[in-house]
Design brief:
Elements lengths: L2 H16 L6 E3 L3 H13 L3 E7 L3 E3 L3 E10 L11 E7 L5 E8 L4 E7 L7 E8 L12 E8 L16 E7 L4 E2 L4 E9 L7 E7 L4 E5 L6 E6 L7 E7 L4 E5 L3 E2 L2 E8 L4 E9 L6 E8 L2 E9 L4 E7 L6 E8 L5 E9 L5 E7 L3 E2 L4 E10 L8 E8 L11 H6 L13 H4 L3 H13 L7 H6 L14 E9 L10 E6 L5 E6 L5 E6 L5 E8 L7 E5 L22 H17 L1 H4 L18 E4 L9 H8 L3 E6 L2 E8 L4 E2 L5 E4 L2 E2 L3 H5 L6 E13 L2 E11 L14 E6 L15 H4 L9 E9 L5 E7 L5 E10 L5 E10 L5
Parallel strand pairs: 1-22, 3-9, 11-18, 27-48, 40-43
Antiparallel strand pairs: 2-4, 4-7, 5-6, 5-8, 8-9, 10-12, 12-15, 13-14, 13-16, 16-17, 19-20, 20-23, 21-22, 21-24, 24-25, 26-28, 28-46, 29-45, 29-47, 30-33, 30-35, 31-32, 31-34, 34-44, 36-42, 37-38, 38-39, 40-41, 42-43, 47-48
Protein name: Macroglobulin domain-containing protein
Keywords: Signal
């Protein structure tokens, strides 16, 4: 990987770590473990994406609006490293049906998907990631289910819901069951779709003696206490609510080994007790605790009668999930578990409408405030959606706080993660701890970290713009070719040209900047010099399917009326407001050519038109001469600074596409050329240098009629997504209110870029539609220092009595 990029990543991580004043308390801790942990963390900077969608249920023909929150994985502060996020909508078969590249700036980005009528009704998965995140497990990617309903197609017979497959899992606290040592055993029982089920269970010996009874507290998760005895084998029998009986063996019971038990006192102290069954006395154990790769505790305790206890305040740990690991005297991890500390430093978002009940086509004024839990105002960036509450809504149980604090750091699916943040009471804390016992941390493995090897990182962060990747292949040998220059052109009104040289594996990397919308890319080698090679360009999207099991798709009978109303809303919007709904924010490109200001510029319509390029150059381009050598054309350009002619051909481009064969250039029709730029000096681009530049710009900007080299690769390319502007009608005047166009908007308001000022205040305004009912407003946001929040409000729309 480029050393400059690595240095930038290490610097960012160093600054992140330095922001934490209290790194960890160390008492004779294992320096080797700490050093390897820190070395690994410096290489493996973690990024997180969260995608706020305006709703969770859509109809084909509607727009799916989204806001991307992009933060570092440690402090949850907005990050400014990667400049591109990749978003996909995957169907039930894990196939992408929609894809987009979204520009990121200062920790966020936004965009929209139009949902075409070609989509079938069903549950889909929104997946988001960056190029850097592709170096790590796909479990790091953001994933979220949404429902899409096609009212233009008969849904047909739904697949039979699988109720026969269940998964029963047991998780001893710390990882091990050891003979004669009491342990807490957590369990999780789910159906085929990962949804927890209710049941009653018992643990039996081989002689069918009952040694424990258990049942879940929430979402099929709970725990029981259990002391395994020597020589016994145990099984669990579970009886589900539907009468089905499941039998599952308990995890392996060891005669020797380590166990750990965590207890939290009412005063906020945490006691971690380590017990060891060993044939020989053991000297000591280590405890290392980290919160999202920030070491908080690294301590050593002597074993006395094969027991050691670590005691510390939970305030030492960071907010959210901490990873607590026990190491033996040989620095081998022997036990670990997760602990969740409720976030104390929160962003509190409040939204209050000017009144609770509004009539149709009336202005709603929304006062928004953002503050710290202490009451001090905080400036924040927010995304806001206001939509009609109906029976189609499934309830979006994933929010910005529940994802960043919880789901993003846990292996596997967390059912209804927002439950743990919206509910209160001692039972919720116990349920949260059960969740910690049944889900592992997914950000790295100790086995990989303890090897101390440098990570193999294939993908670099796109910190300047989108990276187009490819490779050069020798056409006759069909092997990768090293040290060959490749040219990538983006034709258009403001053309771009990039040059890259292949590495030892033939790999190419082009850093493409500010390419928006559907374009064509043209890639080629220098046909006059490197004619035995071909270029293969790679797609940037992650080709591996998701491990997420999408929930079962069904439509309840009571949704019929809501579907009809929603479909009417969608169709009227597309009929009367299609043009306004498809208005995109104008992108202002860099109008300078890639070679900067030319030394001379000729607008050909200002001169006498000639039928041949050779005549154009001869008659009024004094710095360039077309000559022939052995029947082939070549060009001589004046090296103006040195007052002599270059001996090599210049870089010749037509709408940014290089032309290496001067015979092709001379056969080109000059009547298609609008402008000619000439650079009469040495020009450097990427790894190449050129004897001047001739830049031809056509009237169309699309390389009109230029015969491309046979080895050129033309690729239809989707650049960064253009931002569609959210449209809603205004009703400021009586004439506007009396407009007879129907306004059946279901989504009243969407904005991904709401900001509160230093006083934590801002105000929004939008108009109600003609549809009566209750509307839900959702606000999510983040501060520059990583405080996150989520809030909702409701308003009611009623027609005034006649």
């Amino acid at each position: 990987m480029n050393q400059t990029i690595l240095t930038r990543i290490h610097l960012i991580f160093f600054l992140m770590v330095s922001c934490a004043a209290n790194l960890f308390s160390q008492t004779d801790a294992s320096e080797e473990v700490v050093q390897k942990f820190n070395n690994y963390s410096r290489q493996a900077l973690q990024e997180k994406l969260y995608i706020h969608t305006d709703q969770s249920v859509y109809l084909t023909g509607e727009l799916l609006w989204f806001k991307v929150y992009y933060v570092d994985g440690t402090l949850h502060q907005p990050l400014d490293l990667s400049k591109v996020a990749y978003l996909e909508v995957l169907d039930q078969d894990q196939r992408p049906v929609l894809q987009a590249k979204v520009a990121l700036s200062d920790g966020s980005g936004n965009g929209s998907f139009f949902l075409p009528a070609s989509l079938n009704s069903g549950n889909y998965l929104i997946r988001g990631y960056t190029n850097w995140m592709k170096n790590f497990d796909k479990a790091y990617f953001f994933e979220k289910p949404v429902t899409i309903i096609n009212t233009f197609r008969q849904i047909g017979a739904l697949p039979v819901k699988d109720t026969l497959h269940y998964e029963v899992q047991f998780f001893p606290e710390g990882g091990n069951l050891v003979e004669n040592i009491a342990s807490k055993v957590a369990f999780r029982v789910t159906d085929h779709y990962g949804k927890g089920v209710g049941f009653k269970g018992v643990v039996l010996t081989a002689e069918n003696d009952t040694v424990a009874r258990f049942q879940p507290q929430k979402f099929g998760i709970g725990h029981f206490l259990f002391t395994p005895l020597p020589g016994n084998q145990y099984k669990a029998i579970l009886r589900l609510a539907n009468g089905k009986e499941l039998i599952q063996k308990l995890p392996e019971i060891h005669s020797l080994g380590y166990t750990m038990q965590l207890e939290e006192s009412a005063a906020g102290e945490i006691n971690v007790t380590v017990q060891v069954a060993s044939t020989t006395p053991l000297p000591h154990v280590y405890l290392l605790a980290h919160t999202r790769q920030q070491i908080k505790i690294a301590q050593k305790q002597a074993l006395q009668q094969n027991t050691a206890t670590f005691t510390f305040s939970k305030q030492v740990l960071g907010d959210g999930i901490s990873h607590i690991t026990i190491f033996n005297a040989s620095n081998q991890p022997v036990c670990e578990r997760l602990y969740f500390k409720r976030p104390e430093q929160k962003l509190v978002i409040s939204a209050k409408a000017d009144q609770e009940i509004h009539s149709s086509r009336k202005k709603v004024v929304l006062d928004i405030s953002t503050q710290h839990t202490s009451g001090n105002p905080l400036a924040a960036q927010l995304s806001v959606a206001v939509y009609k509450t109906d029976t189609l809504l499934t309830g979006d149980n994933l929010t910005l706080p529940s994802y960043l604090w919880l789901s993003s750091d846990l292996a596997g699916k967390v059912e209804s993660p927002d439950y743990y943040f919206t509910e209160n009471g001692p039972h919720v804390q116990q349920e949260l701890d059960n969740l910690m016992l049944t889900h592992g941390w997914r950000r790295f493995s100790w086995q990989q970290m303890m090897k101390g090897d440098r990570l193999s990182l294939k993908y670099i962060p796109e910190y300047e713009g989108h990276l187009v990747q490819g490779r050069i292949i020798h056409t006759t040998q069909n092997t990768p070719a090293a040290n060959i220059s490749a040219y990538l052109s983006v034709p258009g009104r403001y053309p771009q040209l990039y040059i890259a040289q292949s590495d030892s594996a033939g790999e190419l990397l082009f850093a493409v900047k500010e390419v928006y919308g559907a374009r064509q890319l043209i890639a080629q080698t220098n046909s006059q010099r490197d004619s035995l090679y071909r270029i293969e360009l790679k797609l940037p999207y992650f080709e591996t399917s998701s491990s997420w099991q999408l929930p079962y798709f069904s439509l309840a009978a009571q949704t019929t009326d809501a579907l009809l109303t929603r479909s009417l809303s969608m169709q009227t919007q597309n009929t009367y407001f299609a043009g306004k709904r498809n208005h995109f924010t104008a992108f202002r490109p860099d109008t300078a050519t890639f070679y900067g200001s030319p030394d001379a510029r000729y607008h050909l319509d200002e001169y006498t038109r000639f039928p041949l390029i050779e005549d154009v150059l001869k008659e009024y381009v004094p710095g360039v001469q077309a000559r022939k050598r052995r029947g082939n054309y070549y060009l001589e350009v004046l090296d103006l600074p040195h007052k002599i002619n270059f001996t090599d051909n210049p870089l010749v481009v037509v709408d940014g596409v290089p032309v290496f064969d001067m015979n092709r250039l001379m056969s080109y029709n000059p009547f298609k050329v609008k402008r000619l730029d000439v650079v009469t000096r040495k020009y450097y681009l990427g790894p190449e240098s050129f004897s001047g530049v001739l830049g031809f710009a056509t009237f169309t900007g699309e390389v009109a009629g230029l015969p491309l080299d046979p080895g050129a690769v033309i690729l239809d390319f989707e650049g960064l997504q253009q931002q569609r502007e959210f449209y809603a009608p205004l009703y400021d005047t009586p004439q506007q209110q009396e407009n007879r166009l129907p306004d059946f908007r279901h989504l009243l308001f969407w904005s991904p870029t709401v900001k509160t000022n230093k006083d934590g205040k801002t105000q929004l305004a939008f108009y109600t539609s003609d549809m009566e009912g209750e509307y839900t407003g959702v606000l999510e946001g983040i501060t520059p220092d990583g405080k996150i929040g989520h809030s909702t409000f409701t308003i009611t729309v009623q027609h005034p009595p006649k």
